[in-house]
Specification:
Helices cover about 25% and strands about 25% of the residues. With about 260 residues, it is an alpha+beta fold. The chain has one domain: Endonuclease/exonuclease/phosphatase (Deoxyribonuclease I, Chain A, 4-Layer Sandwich), CATH 3.60.10. The strands form 3 sheets. Strands 3-4-2-1-14-13 form a 6-stranded mixed beta sheet. It has a 6-stranded mixed beta sheet with strand order 5-6-7-8-12-9. The chain has a two-stranded antiparallel sheet with strand order 10-11. β3 (about 50-55) and β4 (about 65-70) form a beta hairpin. α3 packs parallel to α4.
């Protein structure tokens, strides 16, 4: 069972690359972020032609998440997070697929910090933790996949001096992420690549891709049941280098039976 997360950075602008990746790698489940389209503009028919059922939670021009399932229709179990009735941003979508509970997550960036956007990021992480605690009680493998906008360690960025003032590297962001792990969730890539130096994102600016100046912000967190089944994970790095690609690369895990 291959489960992937992919911040597509605009599903309409990157649709050829997304379809190309799906056709080449055939993940069983694909969690998408930053689809940047309203619900009525989501290209579900394009995925159906490749054999993928889909659910999505859109928003005009910003944010937006989706879940695709090969040869199946995801059964939605949660849309958005409880704890803030005024939050209208489309950042969380959860479904049951192939006997697995999976969530597509687009965690707030939080810049500029300090300020209201950073406060929103930290509160959103608290809400995610509360919901994750409920998911942990299920007798199912659970995968929380997405763009977390958190760089967990110094070895998860090309330079320890880079982005020190960015919300992605603030102590509060990292502490909130590590608290989630301490609740019993496993960071799949960190488990298989404990020395780090595995990037999932390269900025469009300043020749970041050409110089391999990347960092890791796309994570797949596994419940204990799912972690016991983990046997492989990686990043489809070459897809970042293709024409008109997203600034993220698809990141994936494989679970055994």
């Amino acid at each position: 069972m291959r489960i992937a997360t992919y911040n597509i950075n605009g599903i309409k602008a990157r649709l050829p690359r997304l379809l190309e990746w799906l056709d080449e790698t055939r993940p069983d489940i694909a969690c998408l972020q930053e689809i940047k389209t309203q619900d009525e503009g989501f290209p579900a028919d394009e995925f159906e032609r490749l054999g993928y059922g889909a659910i999505w939670h859109g928003q005009k021009s910003f944010n937006g998440v989706a879940i695709l399932a090969r040869d199946a229709q995801p059964v939605e179990t949660q849309r958005g997070l409880a704890g803030d009735p005024e939050d209208e941003q489309s950042r969380y979508l959860e479904a049951e697929v192939h006997g697995i509970r999976v969530a597509s997550i687009y965690l707030p960036n939080g810049n500029p910090q300090p300020g209201p956007k950073f406060d929103y990021k930290l509160k959103w992480m608290q809400r995610l933790r509360a919901h994750a605690a409920k998911l942990a009680t299920l007798e199912l493998p659970v995968v929380l996949a997405g763009d977390y906008n958190v760089i967990p360690h110094d070895h998860d960025i090309w330079s320890t001096k880079a982005l020190l003032d960015d919300a992605l590297r603030q102590p509060e962001s990292i502490a909130a992420y590590r608290t989630l792990l301490a609740d019993g969730w496993t960071d799949a890539l960190a488990t298989h690549y404990p020395q780090g130096r595995v990037w999932t994102y390269w900025d469009y600016q300043a020749g970041a891709w050409q110089q391999d100046h990347g960092f890791r912000i796309d994570h797949l967190l596994l419940s204990p049941v799912a972690a016991d089944r983990l046997y492989a994970c990686g990043v489809d790095k070459d897809h970042r280098g293709r024409e008109k690609a997203s600034d993220h690369a698809p990141t994936w895990i494989e679970l055994g039976d």
